[in-house]
From TrEMBL:
Record lineage: Bacteria, Pseudomonadati, Bacteroidota, Flavobacteriia, Flavobacteriales
Domain spans labelled Cyclic nucleotide-binding: 32-113
Name recorded for this polypeptide: Crp/Fnr family transcriptional regulator
Highest rank taxon of the organism: Bacteria
Organism per entry: Flagellimonas marina
CDD domains: CAP_ED
InterPro entries attached to this UniProt entry: cNMP-bd_dom (IPR000595), cNMP-bd_dom_sf (IPR018490), RmlC-like_jellyroll (IPR014710)
Length: 186
């Protein structure tokens, strides 16, 4: 079974013919480590689904400090959603931590697909709900949990991240210094 179909069918069931239609709206793309898929200021018209690899979405503040909003690994969706939906310049950048294999769908094709197949409209509505829940939990964790608690939650939820992502990026995601991260790990 195609990995995208398996992913979609966690939420909705598709016939073979329906999946063929869905897949026809996606394009494959390969990116090397450190290549961007989105740079701050871009107009983003693509949403990416990660077949293989690891990416990060982030912004750099006025002092040059990197703040990681999200990591993306296999079976995750990633883009600058504000730019994608509102057609405004991106406020974030997204680049590859590892060589990555992605599928993307353009905004126009996603609109066409959801108009043609209401099942996919339901799929993206459900994915959006889960995304909002994850975002809410991330914000709550940043606001109420100690650095150690945030570290422990990340380690419990995504242990594979610690094998794939440099420590300085984990620290930037947790909102701590590299030195603090070293203390949290001991």
């Amino acid at each position: 079974m195609h990995p995208l179909r398996k992913h979609i069918e966690e939420l909705i069931i598709l016939t073979d013919e329906e999946f063929d239609v869905v897949l026809s709206y996606f394009e494959p793309i390969q990116k090397r480590k450190h290549q961007y898929i989105v740079q701050e200021g871009d107009l983003v018209d693509k949403e990416y689904w990660i077949l293989d690899g690891c990416l990060k979405s982030y912004f750099v503040d006025e002092e040059g400090k990197e703040h990681i909003l999200q990591f993306g690994m296999e079976n995750w969706w990633i883009t600058d959603y504000e730019s994608f939906i509102k057609h405004t310049p991106s406020k974030i950048s997204i680049d590859c931590i590892e060589d990555s294999e992605l599928l993307y769908i353009t905004f126009e094709n996603r609109e066409k697909l959801t108009a043609q197949m209401h099942k996919m409209e339901r799929f993206w509505a459900k994915k959006s709900k889960f995304g909002r829940i994850a975002l809410q939990n991330r914000i709550l964790s940043l606001l109420k949990n100690s650095a150690k608690e945030r570290y422990d939650v990340l380690l419990e939820q995504y242990p594979q991240l610690f094998q794939r992502v440099p420590k300085k990026l984990i620290a930037a995601y947790l909102g701590v210094s590299r030195e603090t991260l070293s203390r949290l790990q001991s």
